[in-house]
Write a structure and sequence with these properties.
Oligomer: single chain
Main location: other
Strand content: 5-15%
Largest sheet: 8 strands, mixed
Keywords: Fatty acid metabolism, Isomerase, Lipid degradation, Lipid metabolism, Lyase, Multifunctional enzyme, NAD, Oxidoreductase, Peroxisome
Number of helices: 30
Shape: globular
CATH superfamily of the largest domain: 2-enoyl-CoA Hydratase, Chain A, domain 1
Structural class: alpha/beta
GO molecular function, one term: enoyl-CoA hydratase activity
Distance between the termini: 28 Å
Catalytic activity: a (3S)-3-hydroxyacyl-CoA + NAD(+) = a 3-oxoacyl-CoA + NADH + H(+)
Pathway: Lipid metabolism; fatty acid beta-oxidation
Length: about 700
Amino acid sequence: MLGAPHYKLFGRAAVIYLDNPPVNAITAVARARLKILIERFATSKGIDAIILTGAGPEFSSGTDISRCSGKTDFSGLPELITAIKASAVPIVAALEGRAIGEALSIALACHARVATPSVQLAFPEATWGLVPSGAAALHLSELAGLQCALEMIVGGKNITGNAAHALGVVDELVSSREALVDEAIRVGTDRSPRRSKSPTEKSRQDIIEDFKQSFPASLKAPAGKLAMECVMGAQSTSLEENIAIENRHNEKLLAEAETIALLHASKVELATDLPHIRSGSDTISLPKCVAVVGFGFMGRGIAISFATGGLKVLVHDQAGDRLAEGLEAVGASLKSMVRRGRISQEQAEIARNNIIAIGDMEALDEADLVVEAVSEDLELKKRIFAKLDSICPNNTTLVTNTSSLDIDEIAAATGRPKNIAGMHFFSPAHLLKLVEIVSGRETAEGTIEQLRVVSKHIGKIGVVVGNQFAFVANKLLAGYQREALFLLEEGALPEQVDRVLQEFGFAMGPFVMNDMAGNDISYHVRQAASYPAGMRYPHVADRIYEAGRYGQKTNKGWYRYEPGQREAHPDIEVAALIESTSSELGFKRRNISDDEILQRCLLPVVNDAAWLLGDGIARSSGDIDVVWMNGLGFPRRKGGPMFWADHLGPKRVYERVIEFREEHGPVLWEPAPLLAFLAKSGMRFADVR
């Protein structure tokens, strides 16, 4: 039966395998089959232990969220948990890869758990707008205490097998996956008492207050508040009542628009991940050694990303003195990551030792993957790729971190176009999760798959895009920023535009963002660009640059900043400069509503995205949502710009775009054919395949 668990007998032990490739997601069918098997073996006189594990390299990614759209999505889970708890035969969960969400709830209900040190354990339900199910709060607090339950269930904290063992969540660690089932059988047939959780010296109130200080954002969302209720009441109610409370909460949350958007966000992120998750002989090997050419700000962040992923990294820069300076900066960045709790001190030390400075470019022949991260100079990049082509073995993959340049033209400088691609990291590269994987005209599918695998390994979300100037993210960002600038020339002020977009859910508006990035940088980008006849130009941005207002670096940009501070203060000089620019351009300034600001900024993103989808540069509307949520700050609780557009309705979006075309001309507001088709047909962007 497709997606259903199966079993094998090993002597007097029954080993049940969750088997729903590629990540063993759990469906109602799987729950029902699992319950039948457990009840059968629990009453069998010939069975002394039941082992629950995953087929392949994963235990399970948890609930199949592609089916999560109503209250029946968790059907059968209460009965399954009850069957596990009622079994007189010990049930041991053997965990590797990932045990996520519902899968972890099932594992916690078992009598014991055996795991590899690197297994990832987490409850991601908060990111879906839901609370964990299967009496998760009850079992986790029993095993590891209140603090762990709050941090994982409400705060969404991930832990490894090593940490879980220290907390008492995992009973035994096994160094290799080959010995995992054998150890689980041994533990299952050993009737000695299980480990108990370590006593805590903190009071219940201190634990709660510390949690609120450490995870302040987790209690703002409805799901976080309800998850907190589950944890706080878990120990005072029965198993059945714990499950009933979780189900009631999730039934309520599944009716919320925010939950629907968050589920969509998780689904489309998972969709970017699934195609390259393989098992057995089909697994694509990770590179043993990565090289980064160009050790400036971006190159350093890229090197840190690979090094913290456990990979050996060779770094090279044509300016030799930049290597020592770069290594010092890497050390400072790693210290900051430790201070912020992103990595441990031990991980920082390992990562630093993984990075090796190379003065002679010829020594990069050891690398299996080379990432070029020099400045955006096409001729310079072509020279570097030609040199790398002569140095590196024929099977080495060469990628560029360009944010906009032509991959095919760079590939033409080599004799290996199949092994050439783009790998566009977002700044700062060691902190942001998004990577655009850019496929050239001749890039081999195996090359793309390799880059997807390595992106996942280093904790990034790799989205495959086509080769067009500025690719997807920057192409769509241009329209967003362009209209924000035009709104200033017509009557708005930076603080109004930023407020509207922050109230929508962005962490910051476009003008605070520009001040952070540097208004001098965006000026030079505009000067290097070409503009078709009749295209409106954002003169107000040039006036800011000409006034020496480069942003936070000069303590003045679109806002005023106190020295050493990042808080943005509206500046009357900026207001005067904007008003004079409007007059110079012949605009009669007017009151602009918040609704117009939101639509003027977001609808170009949707329309331009429709063009990219129609041209095949973006593979799906979901990929565009992933790009904007993980690289450009679109709020997850809104689901991404294409989900937002589907919620508005393509017909309404199309009609508004037509209105803006009439007001502002067709050069920037011509509706995409795909948008027109969806408006006429009644279909959504999500329906486009």
